[in-house]
Amino acid sequence: MKNIFSYYRVAACVVVFMVLGLNPVYAGPLAGDNEIQVSAGFFHAQGTDSGNFNGEISYGYYLSPGWELGLRQAFNYNFIHHGSDAWQATTTPFLHYNFRVTDILVPYLGISGGVVWNDRDITGTMGPAAGLKLFVSNQTFINLGYRYEWFFNSFEAARDNRTHGNHVANIGLGFVWGGAGDRKTTK
Length: 187
Fold this sequence. Notes:
mainly beta
């Protein structure tokens, strides 16, 4: 677990140096913008043939420069040494609020809820999310995201299971397009 966070720290430093080395951009979401984002990850346990691949894609629509309504589709595949491989997919609508700190830095907070499913089972999931979008051009950003998800089969179980969930951190690439207004004059 400690090694995973080391990779995220190195990636975050690379992103910061990239952002600092670029010319200023006039970025950030506008009302009516569309957003698409992709991210993926891989884990392999040293000395075994066990590991994990995960990927996700999300689409968002900006109701205003701050409020974003969207849908995330994630896929997780576990390959297990001397065991049966397993997969699961997660489909979750989300609502985020984007805080425009600068033309480059756009942190966000949000919530999501939906379903986790595979070929054997389906269950509910929900939880908070937070992250930072680092715009590297007018319509392209790097996302550093975190979300907590807990699982439930009933509303009573949702309240009981909130301390038994997953921590999900990701780095992704995103694009915004459309919207109302001129990015060069919006500050």
